[in-house]
Amino acid sequence: MIELHNVTKTYLKGVQALVNINLKIEREEFIFLVGPSGAGKTTCVKLILKEEEPTEGSIFIDGQDVTRLSRRKVPYHRRNIGVVFQDFRLLPNKTVYENIAFAMQIIEATSKDIRRRVPMVLGMVGLSDKAASYPYQLSGGEKQRVSIARAIINNPSILIADEPTGNLDPETAWEIMKVLKQINRRGTTVIMATHARNIVDTMQQRVVALEKGRIVRDEQRGAYEYEG
Amino acid sequence: MKVRTVNYIFRQGLTGLWRNRTMSIASIGTVAATLIILGLVITLVLNISNLADLAQMQFDEIQVYLKDDLFIAEIDNIGKEIRMIEGVSDVIYESKEEALEKFKESWGEEGYLLDGLEKNTLPNSYIVQMDNLELADSIVKDLEPLKGIDEIKYYKEIVDELLKAAKFVRTIGLIIILILILVAIFIISNTIKLTLSSRRQEIGIMKNVGATNWFIRWPFLFEGVLLGLIGSIVSIIVVYYGYQYAFNAITSRFYLMLSTYIVSVDEMMKKTVYIFAVLGVGVGALGSIFSLRRHLKV
Q1: Contact call for B215 and A106, based on CB within 8 A
Q2: Fewest C-beta in 10 Å: which of A63, A207, A211, B29?
Q3: How far is A160 from chain B (nearest CA, A)?
Q4: Contact call for A154 and B8, based on CB within 8 A
Q5: Tens digits of per-residue pLDDT, B51-107?
């Protein structure tokens, strides 16, 4: 469960990215964060990851106040959250398998676990036959599926996707949405920041709309915008 | 730390070293140059203070060389006069024959070479022992007016000169070394910075996935330490062969007897190897820590 209590984020230059945000996301929820560029979506993501600190307010994840987390504990906090970006962020000199295994290596998983889990997750995102390919040999959709596989390989309870379909054509975007929905069905909370109006409208999930740093709308089974 | 993590750190460190070969070589070179100069200074200082020690041991008495044309009675007279000086505890006469015998002994196996001497040019002398080394100056002052004395030798001047020289070399050397250490740290931190920037993306992913700060830092720290260590190994090799060469050149070509005054190669290496290794590793670690502090926000 993620809770934001009266969260305000003001950047150094006085830019108000978020103003007094109150948001509660339940376990296993699927939620869209929508809004124009600069509305505060990415800031929201960064606050949850503790890449940024809120200027005011507090953020609770599974009952733990993230803003009070010591520096030493931040890595362990992040292990609980998988992240997917618009630009995939794969390591170009590693194969698909190695890119995913890397995420396990750096949290010091055993090689036995790595050999067991990587093929399993590759299967989940439908890339079993691409394990030995390098990123440049993959299509955009495939790359994004690799990055999703990497995000969930360590079994995080939350998956954050920041514009995951931003670089993809509509058809491929839907493949990605299917994968995300499937991950959500397995019990992972999914937060997706997006501009993609038709995806939001079709998925019929909870929609939180941000505008100029404020929540302007929060509805279950919502659409990107009010009709009319 | 787990074995596979150590493995990972080693591999990453070595990769970093290889990726920026040019900078790595520059770093290793600077560390090596710094330590070689340190070696030079240590060599000089150790030898000079060794010499000072030896001098002090040999000249804890005042040696009074007599003129060559004195009668026995005159010599005896001088001995009596010396005995009367305040602070003198004992006076021993050493004839020129005894002096030659002593000299031969000090040459050891090569002593036979002196058998061929046609004329013994060593002087007769009195060896003056003192109640207290501090009195040397006043005793020498009292000795100077005596007739029949050719030369007075005592430790203090020699030792003072030697110690002054050692101190000078040490001061200048330390200043140069301090500057060089700073340069070495700077160059290493730059090398690490290059590795850091070539790994930006990897580091970003590591942070997102939740690698601990030290897990991210270790490979870079290891790379710096490795640079320092290789530099110190290079310098140890250079100093070892350089000193051996100098030692052989001095002792074989010039004066055989000097070999007892020069610190042996083994002795020298025993004293310097640890200093070099510790300094090399320290400089490497410091260089990477500076770089990590400035360029890696975790």
Answers
A1: yes
A2: A63
A3: 11
A4: no
A5: 777 766 666 678 888 888 888 888 888 888 888 888 888 888 888 888 888 777 777
- Entry pTM: 0.70
Which candidate, A152, A173, A199, A144, places its Cα nearest to that of A32?
Answer: A199
Q: Which residue of B has its CA nearest to A91?
A: B202
Shortest alpha-carbon distance between residue A196 and chain B (Å): 24
As to burial, measured by CB atoms within 10 angstroms (0-12 exposed, 13-18 middle, 19+ buried), residue A179 is buried
ipTM of the complex: 0.83
